[in-house]
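ingest -> fold -> write
write: protein_1
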Amino acid sequence: MSELISHGGFFRAVRYTSGFIPTLLVMSAIAALAWWGHAHNWKMPKASVLRGEEVEKDDWCADHNVPESVCVECHPELLPKAASISWCNTHGIPDCTLCQSGNAAGLQQAKLALEFAPRPTNLKACKLHERRLQLADDDAVTKSGLLTELVGTASERDPVVEFISAPGEIGYDQTKVAHLSSRSPGSVVRVFKRLGDKVKQGEVLAIIEAAEVGKAKSELLIAFGLFQLKSQILDSIKSSAGAVPDLRMREAEAAVRETELRLDAARQALVNLGLTLDETELRLATAEQLKFKLHFLAIPADVTAGFDPKKTTSSLLPLLAPMDGTVVSRDVVVGEIVDLAKTLFELVDTSSLWLTLDVKSEDAAKLKLESKQVIRFKSDATAEVLTGTIAWISTQADMKTRTVKIRANLADSAGQQKANTFGTGRVILREEPTAIVVPNAAVHSEGCCTVVFVCDKDFLKEGSLKVFNVRKVRIGAKDDRRTEIIVGLKTGERVVTTGSGMLLSELLRGGLGEGCACHGAK
């Protein structure tokens, strides 16, 4: 009985399970079909297909974000790449057109620019320059906001200049400054020049009555009288035809020499006071002539005309201008008692100035006196730019500021600049009037490379492929607007300026995906 019950349960289980077998087979078949479809890239048909409408082919390159039919990366035959030359070890860029052109002047210019200072380099292993970027069409270029500009030379605007900037000060040329004081104590009789007057060499600035002058003139007249007397005695002895003993002759000759020395000492005393008297003229003059000449010695005739000889002392000492110049300081009035220590006038030749710059110690090594480096200086007081060359470089640094002083001679014949004014100077280290320059926005230094984006030669033609070539360059001088391209570009090429950062982002995105060496990928 139990055996019958057992067989009955088994048949019921079989009948119950057999009801699920068709469903399991169907589900397994659907799963196998789905797996096979996924493996063979099946896609859900579009609604237009289901409705029986005509379908256009999907023409879009997702990798390069342009229509696939015009994608030059997927279809290089649309715009074949130029044949690669090789890496240029001389200039540090690939496919160096400068070396291929054989332009001697350009090669020499690039050589000097690269040797002048350390320049950013490019990594040879980096392959970014092999990439090309592309936009779909003219509308895409417009919507992206990209702007381009032709590559030009510095001569079309301003020359490329590399310089050292330093604060500076304009001052008088100390070799052309005179501080004038009286050569003898005395009182001021006349003052002829005022502050700011221009004077010529030899003009009288003032006249001083000095007792020492009168004493020196009197000593000269006494010495002159004795000299004439002793000379006459000697002449008389010589004419006596031997009637006078030789001893008396020698005594007379010695007396003449003595008075001659005294006369010369008296003349020299006047010369020391600035009163020059010709020695030959002194010997030939008579006592009366000498007295008249000494009265207004060294004073010009147009000045003595204002004096009455009978009422004027002979102790007058003129203060003369030693050079052409301008009176920049006057500290004297009529009747004032003056001495040797008091400066009465300061006379300056203002047509020549000194420019002194305080150069940083680390920049001083770039200065070379023998190179006659040019300094351009703009004063805070005027808009004029003064130009000179380095004439002196200090051999020591300032103890407080640790700067090195340099000096240039400046010509200012018009007298426009003012002494003791400040400004900024530039020491020109390198100046290139025909360098290739581009706007700063066109240049990108990323990782190990410096690149610009160069438009294809047919870029501006309507309907042309909008392709940008990645070009490695070596850059030189840079200011707030432009960057010098030492090598890597040619004049007449067109580079991307505004919006070039968008192209850089796309370049780096693609470079990382392809394993660019300059970004550390393997």
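write: protein_2
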Amino acid sequence: MDLERVLELAGWASTFAFVALAVIALRVYRRHGDAASKWLVVSFSVLTGGLLVSRSGLSDAVPALQVVVVLAILAFPYLLLQFTAAFVPLRPVLRVAPAVVFAVLAVWTFAVVPLPEDGRSAGDIAWLVSFLAFFGLTSLTVATRLWRAAEGEPTIARRRMRTLAIAAVLLSLGLLLAGVAAGRPGFGLVVQLTALVSTVLFGIAFLPPALLRASWRATEEDQLYRAALRLMATTSDAEVAEVLLPQVTRVVGGHGATLESVDGTLLGEFGDGTGTEPMDVTLTRTRLRVWVSPYTPFFGEDEAKLLLRLGLLADLALDRAALLAREQEARSETESVNAELEAFVYSASHDLKTPLVTILGFLDVLGDERASLSAEDTTFYLGRMRANARYMQELIGDLLELSRIGRVETTVEPVDLAEVLTEIEEGLGAVHPDVRLVVQDELPTVLANRTRTRQLFANLVENAARYGGRPDVTVRVGANASDAGCELRVVDDGVGVPEEHRERVFGVFERLSTDERGTGIGLAICRKIVAELGGDIRFVDGGDGGADVRITLPEELLVDRPGVRTGGGGD
């Protein structure tokens, strides 16, 4: 096979290779649809069109088409320069100078092409030198921009960008050889082989083979494996973010990253994303956002997949952390309940044992000394035994009542608190005739169980009457609006509750004085009723020395609240 035949085959091979590149560029455009891929399609479509016209012989048959071929080749590096500008805008000098030179050369091309076959004038040579210089310098500018930009990119993106830079320089070198060694068959073969190699490199840059990608990705895969191991050892949202975000930033060559829950809560952040583009991965529990370079979305498809895998691992790690947190919370609640149960059993056994010991003691006296006891002594002992038995009955009844709250299902209905207080006031005179109950404000209507609500206020009024320090205590009930919903006040003018005991008295069997009557369970029942409503009950400083109880109820329980004041506390 002679050299000319080899040259022709090599020429057709390189031409079809550029056709394949144009097809690849079109696929890239369909996948990305951005400005960079658009310039890529235009670049290789123009160059491929010119080469097909030249290779088919149409330019020989129609000399004017030689201008089209030359302009297609001349435009290629300029269009590639616009491709790089789609990522990072060109400096003014690079934006203006190539455009002006390209326009001048395009006009000049119409004057000199087709070139004469029998010899070239000084003007033709000057045009050829200018043509090659423009092609070479523009290609070198493209290669330099890509090479430098690849410095901070992850492995695959960096190697793709630098492969593209080498391909641009190699194509420029082939064209330079073609211009310098025109008419020399040996050099022509070198030119065709150079063009063919450059097309292979372009193809690798745009669509790397799977094996090559796997080879390039080996380092990131190892980092991903290490990150997965560390993520599986995390126990909180903060630890997940601390492990994940630096790793994510390194994998995609980013500048910073954040991890958010799906409701927008920031779980952690790393680095600084100022001035760069965000890449988001939204998953079931989280949204992972990484600020990357402008080149990453185009050259970093593999990194985007790694990012998704890391995001999925983060989801699993956050699920695991949530389970651990719930387990810890459940364990703490169980320990707290056990401690409370232990204290309750101790108190209950002590309080139940006291009247029982008293009863047994009087029974022993009656059994051993009944012959010597007078009727009055016997009546006294029997009365004391009856009183202790009734006290034990009250204790058992209150304990049963406390256990039912929250365990036995109750009917919820709109309850007018003013009506409830009126009922309590009507029954108050029989037990505490000198106690006054005053409703200061119009009280709200709430969604609650009527029996429990009456029990709540009855216990509070009874508590004020019993421990107020004098028989003529006045109890005032009012209501204030609050941020949470509504705050109810039950205030008396008695002796009050010392600050150091205001929390303790809500405990079971807790009484400020052993001389006072009562089981010590009333306030515990009140707190449990309010807790079942989702509210809070507490003693505050009454100011005038009396007891001041505040009950906070959530907004969703309020059916109507006429006359509820918007001020603070008070009476």
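write: annotation protein_2
The first strand starts at residue 256 and ends at 261.
The chain has three domains: 3-216, 217-404, 413-560.
pipeline exit 0
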